[in-house]
Structure to design on (465 residues):
């Protein structure tokens, strides 16, 4: 009988999981505390541990990996957490977790992961390297970002090539640097190369280096980026802009693990992890003959697609607060964004993505007076066209407000609809009553409801004089 230990202090989640795991023919023991979990692991013969991060007596990930090694307990671990941040995903990876699931999770996906975890030969390769967690600058709790975090956690303990895809400004270099800093190569250098910013005739020299006299202007030996990145990570940003000649030489280097400096005869071994990135469509590049298909397959081993900011609007408040905090660390005054100002920021498309949002928040914080930043202040700093655009996007504003509500709402008890109506109805009545100077007849006319209905609602929300 396969035995599974489930550490979860939420009754509903533990019941659902236990039922699903029992249906697979597995025996499940449930505990709610970290100390009970550890005692059970030492005394029981378990094939898998499924643990939440926040348990009744503390953090379920604190020293979990070290404790399992100390007790010589060799079993796979699946981590669940409602603290859906990159730091949590990295800590799960540091605990040598077989899989990490942010809550709410897909039950079927978790059962599939459990099946793989308890199957002999399915364990992930083990590595004693640690993860430099801490204050990570990648911000967001949306479902799209959770998938990014999960994938980052999976790539840290191997040297496979990573391809970062996404629009400009989505944070591809930040993700590349995070993978390096949190991975087992963090003692080595992180060497970024913006391929698009280097003239095509110089890119091979920049990457592979050259010997003195190799070409006109080569007055000294030049060590290329591949050699500079030895022991660390080479980040090739905007690789879609690389010339075909450079692509051919890059492919040869990746296949052989060796390079030649331009004008040199000596072969030099390379030892760098490759992370590439582009905002372009590779299918179009390959179809038009601008990118080698074999090179694409070589670099596209572990793809990570970063979502556009307009596709994760619910992350904008966290990002705004993060950038406002950064502004303080850079010498600006601490500012607070009012709800209506935040709603305006959430309603915009941000074609420049996170980069544009950061620059805008810095400008707003720097140029706005007072401690509280209001909607008119935001509209003024972003320009008239932005204000006009936002005034015509009521549906986007309501969508953003609903997204923000759902992030905080409790889905237990089936009262979500009533809770949402209350959240919207009360401030609406407050604003209308203020606008009509508390004249109930005018307020009822403006709302388009019967005066008696209005009085009932005012009484319900304790708003009658």
């Amino acid at each position: 009988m396969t035995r599974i230990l489930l550490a979860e202090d939420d009754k509903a989640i533990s019941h659902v999981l236990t039922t699903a795991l029992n249906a697979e023919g597995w025996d499940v023991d449930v505990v709610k505390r970290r100390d009970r979990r550890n005692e059970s692991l030492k005394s029981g013969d378990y094939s898998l541990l499924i643990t939440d991060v926040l348990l009744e007596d503390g953090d379920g990930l604190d020293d979990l990996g070290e404790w399992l090694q100390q007790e010589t307990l060799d079993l796979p671990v699946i981590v669940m957490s409602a603290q859906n941040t990159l730091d949590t995903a990295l800590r799960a990876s540091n605990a040598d977790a077989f899989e990490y699931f942010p809550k709410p999770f897909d039950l079927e996906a978790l059962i599939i992961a459990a099946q793989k975890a308890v199957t002999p030969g399915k364990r992930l390769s083990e590595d004693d390297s640690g993860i430099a967690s801490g204050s990570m600058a990648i911000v967001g709790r949306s479902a799209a970002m959770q998938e990014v975090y999960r994938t980052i956690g999976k790539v840290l303990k191997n040297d496979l090539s990573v391809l970062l895809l996404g629009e400009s400004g989505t944070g591809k270099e930040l993700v590349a640097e995070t993978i390096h800093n949190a991975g087992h190569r963090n003692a080595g250098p992180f060497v970024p190369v913006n391929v698009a910013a280097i003239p095509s005739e110089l890119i091979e020299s920049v990457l592979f280096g050259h010997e003195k006299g190799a070409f006109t202007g080569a007055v000294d030996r030049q060590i290329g980026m591949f050699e500079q990145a030895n022991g660390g990570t080479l980040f090739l940003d905007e690789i879609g802009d690389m010339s075909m000649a450079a692509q051919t030489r890059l492919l040869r280097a990746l296949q052989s693990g060796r390079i030649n400096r331009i004008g040199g005869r000596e072969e030099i071994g390379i030892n760098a992890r490759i992370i590439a990135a582009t905002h372009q469509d590779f299918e179009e590049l390959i179809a038009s003959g601008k990118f080698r298909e074999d090179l694409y397959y070589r670099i596209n081993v572990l793809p990570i697609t970063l979502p556009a900011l307009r596709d994760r609007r619910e992350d904008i408040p966290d990002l705004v607060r993060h950038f406002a905090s950064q502004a303080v660390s850079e010498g600006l005054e601490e500012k607070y964004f009012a709800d209506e100002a935040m709603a305006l920021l959430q309603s915009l498309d941000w074609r420049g993505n996170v980069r544009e949002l950061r620059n805008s928040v810095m400008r707003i914080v720097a140029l706005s007076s007072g401690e509280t930043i209001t909607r008119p202040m935001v509209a003024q700093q972003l320009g008239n066209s932005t204000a006009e655009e936002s005034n015509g996007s009521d549906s986007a504003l309501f969508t953003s407000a609903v997204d923000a509500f759902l992030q905080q709402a409790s889905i237990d008890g089936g009262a979500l609809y009533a809770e949402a109506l209350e959240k919207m109805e009360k401030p609406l009545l407050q604003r209308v009553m203020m606008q009509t100077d508390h004249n109930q007849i005018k307020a009822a006319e403006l709302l388009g409801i019967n005066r008696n209905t209005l009085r009932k609602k005012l009484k319900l929300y304790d708003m009658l004089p």
